[in-house]
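Query structure, 695 tokens:
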């Protein structure tokens, strides 16, 4: 179900504002168009004597939209390019042109230059609505996922005469009520004037990230990123130049869009810069770190603080990103206020749309009641932090033994952090874990946050999953280092009883931190193989990889895998992994059994949850991962990536000729036909006019 807002709200609060020279002049411009014959006495656009469905080829009929404003027109077979190798074709778009010298090595039409993608259909029928919706959402997603400078984007779809406008950012996405572009002249004129004369900031580009270089061969872009840190009464701004991307695993889904770069500061030192969108009621990372260290000092001593610091990254600079002096967020700045939802568009076949948003497929009706309930929209703010340390990431580490050693360091840090009485690790950057609740926020947080690949099963489900399992004993079982799955029929969770029990507020705890570590280790084994002893069944491994790590927040594959199936299918999993991974898998099996026992102990008095640090098996886990036999065996294993990622949960729409998503290597642009280009124009205020492209 796609929420709809009113056209008045969209034009008032979403579209870029018109320049002062055009304020209040839309009606006069429409009248001028009538006087000049662009709008005929019959009240139709001159280029549209008949409705679009009367024509046979949309590339002919919708091209006439460009003639209305003498806009920059692009033939439909030009490919929007990005170095990831994605090929797709929005039917039209707005393209920003840099008057200060365009980077010549860029493809003519790259995703990073495009805004307001448009999709067209000649017929106004449910299948056309579905197809256009999936395509425009895909295009808007691509724009945000591939370009770190982008804060939001807009789009539009037209089926025959029926026009809808779209909005997509790091939190909500929605469409509008429809209007007839043939008859509603004022709407169409306002829309195109707004897009043509808007500034890059108003159109969704981030002004504090600039492109400094584009590699002529790989087309990789180097960015200059500014971070403005408050130091007392002063604000100190440092600009960092990117060297390479370390992680952008979160950018393919609508959400925090976390990107991490290796950067160089103005003095030539390597640093690490993290850029992401945090939930509005989450404390920034540098404040959480300070709170943890203060608590450690209060409950222990300075030596304990120093030990903990040795496991934590050191912040050098940090800021909440501002747009024209105002802290940027997905509601107050981008949308100005909480928009009122007046209806819902529910495509009949919107699998690609629903998958892109990690949601359940919508009901089989084209449009729902105007009384449709507004979905919850969680505000996020834009945050950056720079760290002093740079090291090899777990993802890039090639020695399996070193990965287990790094996990032991993380466990040491977690022990020290939770020894202060804090409920959890607070999401400080010592490893890529799920982002738990901040101790600075007294109430439970209702949003499932974190990288879906590594989120605990309970955090992913946002529910307690182990309360119905009987405790095998009143005390914790000894930690097992054997490889035999242990499970009886009574250990199956009673889902019916779970559903009938009153549900307490779900609160993240330290057990979820351990499970995130477990998922990181599982991820390492699934996405790698021993270079000397490769997997005997790579197809089975790939299939399991796609299920376990599809990136969808509503997926139950990983939840059930941790709760039950890893133990049940241990031998099957072992058969499609590299043979030398057997001991590592045995360790992970024991870790999961130990953790599930702790979960059961924590939830045995449900709805009362025992989240005390004493039940968390830190010491048992440390003993397991630093086992001499494990480290000896794994230190001889050189890891080899088997695939860059699991099969994407978001893919290009399968409908529509030629729309195909490819990720392997750089792809050449298709042959381009020369396009008509409107001359540069400036409005009365001196602002450069963007070029509007439409088919």
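Result returned for the query:
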């Amino acid at each position: 179900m796609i929420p709809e807002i009113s056209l008045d709200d969209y034009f008032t609060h979403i579209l870029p504002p018109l320049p002062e020279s055009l304020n209040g002049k839309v009606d006069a411009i429409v009248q001028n168009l009538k006087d000049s014959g662009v709008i005929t006495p019959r009240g139709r656009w001159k280029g549209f004597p008949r409705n679009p469905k009367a024509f046979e080829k949309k590339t002919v009929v919708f091209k006439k939209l460009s003639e209305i404003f003498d806009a920059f027109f692009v033939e439909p077979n030009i490919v929007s390019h990005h170095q990831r190798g994605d090929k797709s074709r929005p039917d039209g778009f707005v393209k920003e042109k840099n008057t200060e010298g365009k980077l010549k090595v860029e493809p003519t039409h790259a995703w990073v230059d495009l805004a307001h993608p448009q999709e067209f259909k000649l017929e106004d029928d449910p299948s056309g609505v579905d197809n256009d919706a999936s395509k425009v959402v895909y295009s808007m997603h691509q724009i945000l996922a591939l370009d770190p400078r982008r804060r939001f984007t807009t789009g539009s779809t037209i089926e025959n005469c029926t026009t809808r406008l779209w909005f997509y950012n790091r939190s909500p996405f929605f469409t509008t009520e429809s209007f007839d572009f043939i008859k509603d002249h004022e709407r169409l004129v306002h829309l195109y004037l707004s897009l043509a004369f808007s500034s890059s900031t108003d159109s969704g580009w981030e002004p504090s990230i600039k492109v400094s270089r584009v590699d002529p061969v790989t087309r990789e872009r180097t960015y200059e990123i500014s971070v403005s840190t408050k130091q007392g009464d002063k604000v100190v701004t440092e600009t960092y130049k990117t060297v390479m991307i370390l992680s952008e695993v979160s950018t393919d889904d609508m959400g925090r869009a976390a990107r991490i770069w290796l950067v160089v500061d103005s003095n030539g030192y390597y640093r690490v810069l993290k850029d992401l969108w945090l939930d509005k009621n989450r404390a920034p990372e540098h404040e959480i770190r300070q709170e943890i260290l203060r608590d450690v000092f209060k409950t222990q001593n300075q030596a304990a603080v120093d030990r903990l610091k040795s496991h934590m990254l050191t912040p050098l600079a940090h800021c909440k990103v501002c747009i024209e002096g105002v802290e940027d967020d997905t509601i107050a700045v981008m949308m100005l206020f909480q928009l009122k939802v007046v209806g819902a568009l529910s495509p009949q076949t919107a699998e690609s749309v629903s998958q892109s948003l990690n949601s359940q497929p919508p009901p089989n009706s084209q449009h729902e009641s105007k009384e449709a309930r507004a979905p919850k929209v969680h505000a996020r703010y834009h945050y950056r932090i720079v760290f002093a340390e740079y090291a090899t990431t777990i993802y890039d580490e090639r020695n399996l033994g070193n990965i287990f050693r790094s996990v032991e360091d993380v466990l040491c840090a977690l022990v020290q952090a939770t020894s202060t009485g804090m409920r959890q690790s607070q999401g400080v950057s010592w490893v890529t874990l799920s982002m738990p609740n901040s101790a600075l926020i007294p109430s439970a947080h209702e949003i499932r946050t974190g990288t879906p690949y590594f989120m605990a099963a309970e955090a992913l489900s946002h529910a307690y999953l182990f309360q119905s399992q009987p405790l095998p004993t009143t005390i914790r079982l000894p930690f097992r280092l054997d490889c035999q799955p242990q499970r009886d029929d009574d250990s199956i969770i009673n889902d019916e009883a779970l559903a009938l029990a009153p549900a307490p507020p779900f609160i993240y705890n330290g057990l979820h931190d351990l499970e995130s570590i477990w998922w990181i280790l599982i991820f390492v084994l699934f996405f790698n193989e021993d270079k000397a002893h490769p997997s005997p069944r790579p197809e089975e491994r790939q299939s399991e990889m796609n299920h376990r790590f599809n990136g969808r927040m509503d997926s139950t594959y990983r939840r059930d895998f941790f709760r039950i199936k890893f133990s049940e299918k241990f031998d099957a999993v072992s058969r499609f992994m590299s043979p030398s991974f057997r001991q590592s898998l045995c360790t992970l099996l024991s870790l999961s059994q130990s953790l599930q026992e702790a979960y059961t102990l924590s939830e045995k008095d449900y709805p009362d949850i025992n989240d005390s640090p004493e039940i968390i098996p830190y010491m048992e886990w440390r003993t397991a991962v630093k086992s001499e036999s494990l480290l000896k065996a794994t230190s001889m294993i050189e890891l080899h990536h088997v695939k860059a990622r699991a099969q994407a949960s978001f893919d290009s729409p399968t409908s529509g000729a030629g729309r195909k998503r490819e990720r392997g290597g750089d792809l050449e642009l298709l042959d381009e036909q020369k396009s008509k280009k409107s001359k540069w124009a400036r409005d009365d205020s001196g602002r450069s006019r963007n070029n509007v492209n439409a088919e």
